[in-house]
Fold this protein.
Amino acid sequence: MKVLVLNTGSSSIKYQLFLSDNWHVLAHGMLARIGETESELKFNWTDASGASQSRHAQLSIPTHQAGLDLLIADLREHELLTDVNELAAIGHRVVHGGAYFNRPVVIDDAVIAAIEQMVALAPLHNPGHLVGIRVAQHLFPTVPAVAVFDTAFHQTMLPIAYRYAIPEFLYTEHQIRRYGFHGTSHHYVAKCAALMLGKPLAQCNLITLHLGNGASACAIQGGQCIDTSMGLTPLEGLVMGTRSGDLDPAVVIYLMKNIGLDATAVDQMLNRQSGLLGICGVNDMREIESRAAAGDAQAELAIGMTTHRLKKYIGAYYAELEQVDALVFTGGIGENATGIRHRTCAGLENLGIILDDAANTARELNGARCISTAASPVQVLVIPTNEELEIAQQALAAVSINV
Ligand code: AMP
């Protein structure tokens, strides 16, 4: 059987089609700028001889339904999906499941209503997911659809970690609390780390760092999340590509009272114009590293602030966990930026985190690997994340439980 994973945004659809026997990727790609004058289609697939092929086109994709129609046509033409009933499940990535969902669920009207309720907390994400879910229901009415939530893995946090120290009614009446995001990635790399450590996930204490354009840290005790750096929204926590991460809430009041920004402008500033971009003018870590190497002081500051904040979270999560088996780096920066890994781990030897510099920088290594010395009490692991595979496997598991 096959499993289709859809990550639908307000104007884009990213997808991967898996063969569930061996989790081989049959096709992947994206439909972008849906509804604009010129949209974009990227379709990559493996042909019958096993060779990788790709099609890239600029064309008109007026609606999400038109986009999925194009995808189905491409899959049919290349005999990757001759009948939609070859699909065992469709896994939909959903960013915000609030406190309603602590695991993937087969989508029904009640699930859709709950995702709708969380639109206020994820206005940039949940509306797009709902469009994708509805269009897919229309096109694949017989295929079970499963929602896999970025927030679900973090639902094991206790109130001491997820509550903000603000008046009670804001939690009870308005659901204002910390939820955490990137849960699918943290869970996936945690499972891989357990395999590498050679013990069950339920016996593993881990600090996982998902460092991409968005970034978050997670403290995992006995395989379960006990704390994470993102909060009510993905704005809290680490220094990110364009998001500030932690800051004194009074900064918001100051921006509104003294600089005259309204709520929309503050939102835009903290989510889109801050982080690495705000500090040094670019948010691509490769460019920031090369600028810093060439002596650019702002780029150097951006890297210093990023790794300083990471150390703070590692220290805090170490204290919460008491004992740590492994520190895990993942995401575009975590998997590739050797300098960020080096500066994050530097000086943490007394915590038992001893990086092997040769292993950290070895160019020939690119899969899951250990980059700490043999004597390091805490293993430092680099594990490429694979959120789509995790969504596909969780979707199939949810469908199987429901049968
Ligand atoms: P992601 O959101 O996980 O795709 O990660 C995007 C971030 O990873 C961007 O800041 C990229 O600059 C960064 N990145 C990707 N490859 C590298 C690399 N080889 N070295 C440093 N940063 C990288």
Remarks:
- The chain has two domains: 2-149, 198-387.
- The pocket of adenosine monophosphate is lined by residues 212-213, 241, 284-286, 289, 331-333, 336-337 (CB under 6 Å).
- The chain has a mean pLDDT of 96.
